[in-house]
């Protein structure tokens, strides 16, 4: 017989979970308090995030769900108004630069309407490689991997993995053939 798993354990494993669970609500409330302090200049990134590399910088305002699932490499930069829905790990590699208003969405919802009706959610990890440049207003969907040295054009919606060294743009984001 399988041991009982908490909603938080299910969430962290990328399984269906109930976000209104008291433990998760408590974690989100703690994160909201940290976000408010961070955005007012009274908190540091290492207080809440899973890992923060040397010289990593997030310009406020910044918003996230839990914080502890965000892992920043060295010299990572996120500009103003970024949102990270971090129900599962979001990893951002060394030297990556992220423009203003970018949304990184690891949170997901079932496609089956009966499961959505039960208020179930899930997550799929997002991994962004080293030396990636993500233009302002881009949206990175759940489960996406962006390879090292890739470029994501401003306003793009990334619905598929992006290989290393490739430039994509548009909705949905598609490879550009640059000269």
Automatic annotation (TrEMBL):
One GO cellular component assignment for this chain's record is:
cytosol
- Domain named Maltose/galactoside acetyltransferase: residues: 8-54
One GO term in the molecular function aspect is:
O-acyltransferase activity
Q: Which UniProt keywords apply?
A: Acyltransferase, Nodulation, Repeat, Transferase
| Family named by the database record | Belongs to the transferase hexapeptide repeat family.
Summarizing the function annotation, the protein's role is:
Acetyltransferase implicated in the O-acetylation of Nod factors.
This chain's protein is named: Nodulation protein L
């Amino acid at each position: 017989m399988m041991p009982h798993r908490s909603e938080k354990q299910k969430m962290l494993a990328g399984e269906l979970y109930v976000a209104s669970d008291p433990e998760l609500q408590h974690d989100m409330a703690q994160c909201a308090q940290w976000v408010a302090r961070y955005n007012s200049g009274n908190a540091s990134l290492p207080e809440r995030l899973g890992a923060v590399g040397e010289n990593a910088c997030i310009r406020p305002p910044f918003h996230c769900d839990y914080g502890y699932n965000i892992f920043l490499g060295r010299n990572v930069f996120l500009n103003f108004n970024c949102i990270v829905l971090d129900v599962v790990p979001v990893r951002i590699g060394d030297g990556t630069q992220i423009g203003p208003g970018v949304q990184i969405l690891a949170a997901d919802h079932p496609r089956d309407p009966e499961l959505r009706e039960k208020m179930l959610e899930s997550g799929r990890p997002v991994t962004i490689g080293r030396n990636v440049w993500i233009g302002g207003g881009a949206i990175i969907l759940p489960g996406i991997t962006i390879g090292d040295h890739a470029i994501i054009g401003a306003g793009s919606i990334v619905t598929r993995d992006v290989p290393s060294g490739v430039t994509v743009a548009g909705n949905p984001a598609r490879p550009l053939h640059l000269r």
